[in-house]
Amino acid sequence: MDQPSRSAGTVRPGGRTARVRAAVMDATQDALVEHGFHGLTMDQVAARAGVGKTTVYRRWGSRAGLVTDLMNELATQSMPHADTGDIEGDLMANALSVLRAINDGRLGATFQAMIAAATSDEQAARALRVFYERRIGEWAGTVDLAVKRGELPQGTDGGELIRAVSAPLYYRLVVTREPVTLEDAERSVARALVAARAGAFVMRDPGAP
């Protein structure tokens, strides 16, 4: 699944409100990377962003509000899904985007902090889930196109196939704490594609035995 093409906080046109939000998102990401979700505070973010505490409290309300907006921003910044005309190429593009993101010093640390927080905090888990639901939904479109081209069986669940590509990479990042390499990405795509072509991701009829 695709990951953000740049870190949050890039200033875009839109006046002072947009600049304040960009500064706060940038400060939130920095604080999250340095201190983790539970070490992040509203006052800390306001000071880093150079804005008044009242502004941060009024607009975001809580630590959860900050990280939820940050994850929304990262999802918005993500590139659209690939359309190479070939499902193997599309899935490889997805795997490479994951690889780049998790090996990026800032983005990788951001995701690790959010994943760690999600194991013990429902608000953090919700923010992370919304981010991945958006990205999985975007990349599932590549699978739908492949089904239409006849590359994959009818009824293939695009979201499940995209999860199958990225899951081994995240397992190495978060669980076994191993380096995640290009070879890992290629192997993940190859295995997921073999399974998909064999019908492993075809959605079952709820009424079927």
Automatic annotation (TrEMBL):
InterPro entries noted in UniProt: Homeodomain-like_sf, HTH-type_TetR-like_transc_reg, HTH_TetR, Tet_transcr_reg_TetR-rel_C_sf, TetR_C
Keyword 4Fe-4S: no
Stretches that traverse the bilayer: none
Gene3D superfamilies: Homeodomain-like (1.10.10.60), Tetracycline Repressor, domain 2 (1.10.357.10)
Keyword terms, alphabetized: DNA-binding, Transcription, Transcription regulation
Molecular function GO labels: DNA-binding transcription factor activity; transcription cis-regulatory region binding
Organism superkingdom: Bacteria
Keyword Heme (UniProt): no
Name under which the protein is recorded: TetR family transcriptional regulator
Species this protein is from: Nonomuraea phyllanthi
